Amino acid sequence: MSEDVLALLKENVIQGRKTKDDEGIDESMSGKPGVLELTQLALENNISLETIITQGLTAGMQVVGEKFTTKEYFIPDMLASAEAVGGAMDILKPYLEASDVATKGKFAIATVKGDIHDIGKNIVAILIKGAGYEVNDLGTDVPTEKIVEVVKEYKPDFLGLSALLTTTMVVMGEIIEALKENGLRDEVKVLIGGAAVSDEYAQEIGADAYCVDGFHAIKLLDAFQESRT
Amino acid sequence: MARQGILVEPYQRLKLEQVERIHRASLAILTDPGLVCFNRNAAELFGDCGAEVSSIEQGGAACWLLKIPEKVVSEALQAAPKVVKLGARDENNCLILDGRESRVHFASGSETNIWLDVDFQAYVKKSDPNIEVMVPEFHRRRGTVLDLCQASHLCEHLETLDAFIRPVNIQDKDITVDNKDVNKFFASLNNTTKHVMAGLTNLKQLDNVVNMAKLIVGGEEELKENPIISFITCLVKSPLQFVEDTTQTLIEICRRGLPVVVSSSPQAGTTAPIKEAGIMAQINAEVLAGITLSQLVNKGTPVIYGSVPVRARMDTLGDSYGSVETSQYNIDCTQIARFYEIPNYSTAGVCDTKMPGMQSSIERLFSDILVTLSGPQYLHCAYGLLDGNSTFCLLQAVLDDAHFQMIKFFLRSPRISQAEIDDTLKQVREVVATPQKLYIRYIRSMLRSGQLSMPYPFEGDGETDNVLALAYERMRQLLAQPVEHIVPATTSRIFQEIPGILPRLNVYEDRREQ
After folding, report:
1. Contact status, residue B410 vs residue B452, Cβ threshold 8 Å
2. Domain check: are B99 and B218 in the same one?
3. For the domain bounded by A2-97, which CATH number is listed?
4. For position B263, which CATH number holds?
5. Does residue B226 belong to any structural domain of this protein?
6. Which of B423, B427, B441 to mutate to test the interface with A (most CBs of A within 10 A)?
7. Which end of chain B is more exposed for a tag (fewer CB within 10 A), N or C?
8. What pTM was computed for the model?
9. Confidence at B445, pLDDT banded by 50, 70, 90
């Protein structure tokens, strides 16, 4: 029974079916339980949190990643799967908090003060959550003081800063300075992204990395975490 | 089930009153100065139907001046079928050309003398020997019958290509004026299940070619039902002359009732007036005269209005297919043919440059889009041609197929039904209620159902332009796919009964993969 649920969970992640109402790719699955329902079912069947995550969610995302690499899948497919996994992680969150199973890490993300562009930021947030990280999305036009406060209180492993405009990207440098002033700079890895910024700009303002896109961000996060262990 | 081509809402460059003005000018041309005819049979046919025919002499050759009254032309236009079927070995590949409907079908074309081979060579950067790039090299040579087999093979697998016009002049040492036609048609027919159209080199070979087609489809009646071959006749030498031999070819094809294109290709500036009004009035007069002749020979002959107008280059006075005016002329002709409700054989995609690349893409895509939009029923020359219509390149044909995939996608009918609106309103309400406010999840069903256009298939990775290398790879893949040859028993009969076909074209005896 548990194997069936896990296999279905993995398959539904691959299909990117968050709920029973989602179409996915295989139309014959329409109306059948999606990732959220199957995650709930797995919990009811007393399948361990670690097994649900590794054999269901992560195993499914692994296949999705491979299909994306071979160009069988496109970004909408990747996002659908990531969104489904993100929803499953929300269901699992209270159980995870009560257990000793850790998430891959904590990630806070914001579009900086003065900038309201959030499409890229939202996509990155979905992908990173789908990759198994706990994500705190602070939204757009976020004041520097609020970002500093979140780093202090929420203690994320990573802080993602997004800006589309050349006029707002300078705020990223101000945030890094504010983190330093508050003695928080070494507590968090700062990653920047957005159309206006670049690798060179990341170095110039003292960020830890520049992310080309969400997939690059996941790779960087995973690499940082691996280097810590 | 016929191939669907693409139905367009035609772009009208000319106002109706302008089309009518050209029509009247063409009729005026056909009575004054009239048309010089070097073919006695045609002159007699025109004389019998009431045209004013007078014997004249030009360059020592016997010829006649035809003054064709409006009534004769009008009766011919009424007699000419509005719908012409072009059959195919696979009947699913047949085409229905309806002169009243702007459904565009795409075909290869011309008969180029030069075949362009492509080869990729590695080049190393002088200042950094670690950097190596692959650069295409092009080699020009005379076309052969095996090249034609390859062209037909490739075109069989080009998704957007609806019909095959032999694009290469076969110039092997053992090809003569007496065996060229049978080899040309056999090489084409044996490697594609699509319709095959070509010109005839030697009228004496017409019956051999027709008999070959009868053997393939099963008999005379079957060929009438499913005319797997058709002919292009350039009987007009501009300005306003019926040449002796090709006019006779048209007459004989019409007697056999097979589909035929009456084509004229005047050049604005040299063999036609440089002004748009002038070249239009003249080419229309020339094609109308040819169509009239076809119906005088055999009323109801399936005839296609063939227009290949082109502007002269100012540096060489050669044809400038890449000029903007050439596209304008072709669009005008399509409108004029539609005025008569006769299917139109139009021209696009021919460029002035000699090899695939940026100029080629710009020139051909410009005319491909615009002429397609005008709605000709049969758009020829659209695949693989370079340097006007003197060079054919398989790689270019693959690139052209990608262009037409985009054009056909663009011309799909809009989907703005109430059901679509209702579905979309539901999406809007759902998405606005979410924190991320993204519609991405709704892309997937559109993507999987083919409702989204695909990216350009030869897009390079990162900042490199790999278009030619990727298209070359695609070309090799397509040529590696098998084609459905004519069955062995029929092939055997063709080789026994039709004289002159080269033994090396027999795929069953030679075991040669073409």
Report:
1. no
2. yes
3. 1.10.1240.10
4. 3.20.20.480
5. yes
6. B441
7. N
8. 0.86
9. confident
Q: How many domains does chain B have?
A: 3
Q: What is the pLDDT of residue B513?
A: 46
pLDDT at B514 over 50: no
Query: For B106-115, what is each residue's pLDDT tens digit?
Result: 999 889 999 9
Contact A83 B441 (CB under 8 A): yes
Q: Among B438, B441, B448, whose Cβ lies nearest the Cβ of A122?
A: B438
ipTM of the shown complex: 0.77
* Chain B: closest CA distance from residue A33 (Å): 17
Q: Is A25 on the interface with B (CB under 8 A)?
A: yes
Which of A74, A116, A121, A213 to mutate to probe the B interface, most B CBs <10 Å?
A: A74
Interface contacts A/B by beta carbons within 8 Å: 30
Q: Are residues B392 and B428 in the same domain?
A: no
Together in a domain, B45 and B110: no
Flag whether pLDDT at A192 surpasses 80.
yes
Q: Quick one: B182 and B273 in the same domain?
A: yes
User: Same domain for B375 and B424?
Assistant: no
Most A-contacting residue of B436, B452, B454, B470 (CB-CB within 10 A), to test interface: B436
CA end-to-end span of chain A: 35
CA distance B509 to B511: 6
**pLDDT given for residue B511 in this prediction:** 54
- Mean pLDDT rounded to a whole number for chain B: 95
Element (H, E) at B311: strand B310-312
Closest-approach residue (CA) in chain B for A140: B436
What gap in Å lies between CA B294 and CA B157, rounded to an integer? 34
Between CA B408 and CA B134 the distance in angstroms is 32
User: Domain for residue B500, yes or no?
Assistant: no
Closest CA to B337 of B278, B291, B300: B291
Instruction: Give B461 to chain A, closest Cα distance, Å.
Output: 13
Where do the structural domains in chain A lie, given as residue ranges?
2-97, 106-228
CA atoms within 13 A on the CB side of B88: 21
Cβ of B437 and A122 within 8 Å? yes
pLDDT of residue B408: 95
Q: Tally Cβ neighbours within 10 Å of residue B125.
A: 10
Q: Are B227 and B87 in contact (CB under 8 A)?
A: yes
Chain B contact set for A22 (CB, 8 A): 441
- DSSP classification of residue A56: I
**Chain segment B220-266, per-residue pLDDT in tens:** 999 999 999 999 999 999 999 999 999 999 999 999 999 999 999 99
Query: In Å, how far is A181's CA from the nearest CA of chain B?
Result: 32
Query: Which domain covers residue B179, as residue numbers?
Result: 80-410
* Domain finish residue from B347, B380, B410: B410
The phi and psi torsions of B216 (rounded to 5 degrees) equal -70, -40
Binary contact (A80, B437; C-beta < 8 A) = no
Decide which of 3.30.420.40, 3.90.25.10, 3.40.50.150, 3.40.50.280 is the CATH code for A106-228: 3.40.50.280
The residues near A198 (Cβ < 8 Å, ≥ 6 apart) are A210
Query: Per the structure block, which two tokens stand in for A184?
Result: 């928080």
Q: Are residues B429 and B400 in the same domain?
A: no
Token readout for A50 is 């670690």
Q: Which residues of A touch B447 (CB under 8 A)?
A: 74, 76
CA distance A142 to A144: 6
**pLDDT, tens digit, for every residue of A55-78?**
999 899 989 989 988 988 988 898
| Inter-chain residue contact B441 with A122, CB threshold 8 Å | no
